[in-house]
Amino acid sequence: MGKTLADAGLCDGQAHAVQLVMSELFGNAVRACGDFVPLVAEVAVEPPRGSGGAERGVRVRLHDPYRVALPVLGDVRLDDPEAESGRGLPLIDLLAPGWRVAGTPVGKQVRCRIPAEREAGL
Question: Which terminus of the chain is less hemmed in, N or C, by CB atoms within 10 Å?
Answer without folding.
Answer: N
